[in-house]
Amino acid sequence: MSDYLNIFVHSIFMENMIFAYFLGMCSFLAISKNVKTAFGLGVAVTFVLVIAVPLCYLLEHYVLRHGALRWLGPAFDSVNLSFLSFILFIAVLASVVQLLEMVVERYMPALYHSLGIFLPLIAVNCAIMGACLFMQQKNFPNAGMATVYGLGSGIGWLLAIIAMAAIREKLNCSDIPKPLKGLGIAFIITALMGFGFMSFSGIKI
User: Fold this and answer.
1) Separation between Cα atoms, residue 182 and residue 188, nearest integer Å
2) Which residues contact 110 (CB under 8 A, 6 or more apart)?
């Protein structure tokens, strides 16, 4: 249990996709102007990560890596399909995002219209692809740990975009120098929040 907790906390704070790796910045900066919309996108990204990361884990361990196909028989012991990782991971992400888009359009039309083009673009959100590739590097022993890692990465991204949206809503009432308004102050705040999240790097569980 402690291993799962360790992965969960690390993926939220110490290895936050936004503040540690700056992945998914395009949608992070574009959508983080309103807390309600930011929350919707953050939940959508978390949903995709929770499904996509374990699916990519299963692909990696039972299809792609060297010797993964040995369950088909001794003739497949030396087969290595790892060169297909990128294209298959992207196919998984695109499929999950398409499913999510249909659900949101059907049951949450207001959120669907507020997210606009950024909902289908979750499929090319580098934070999600990054989580799948980091999962590949970390070589988790089971799909449960991969799922916890996906959940933690999604919650970390969700917390980041909600915090940024709350700050930017407050900034609308602040006297900001004209050259810094918009993306300028957003980049500065993101960097400062990144420094803040660095303080979690000393946590040991």
Assistant:
1) 11
2) none
DSSP result, 58-108: HHIIIIISTTGGGGG-GGGTT---GGGHHHHHHHHHHHHHHHHHHHHHHH-
Q: 33 exposed, middle or buried (CB, 10 Å; 0-12, 13-18, 19+)?
A: middle
C-alpha span between 69 and 12 (Å, rounded):
33
What pTM did the predictor assign?
0.87
Tell the residue number behind the tokens 């990204």, with chain if given: 45
Low-confidence ranges of the chain (pLDDT < 70): 117, 123-124, 202-205
Please measure the distance between the N-terminal and C-terminal CA atoms of the chain and give it in whole angstroms.
Answer: 11
Going from N- to C-terminal start, the domains of the chain cover 2-202
Nearest-CA neighbor of 125 among 152, 93, 147?
A: 93
Round the average pLDDT of the chain to a whole number and report it. Answer: 87
pLDDT of the residue at 56: 93
Reduced to 3 states, what is the DSSP secondary structure of residue 142? coil
Task: List, for residues 34-56, the tens digit of each pLDDT value.
Answer: 898 889 888 889 989 999 999 99
- What tokens appear for 165 in the block? 């949206």
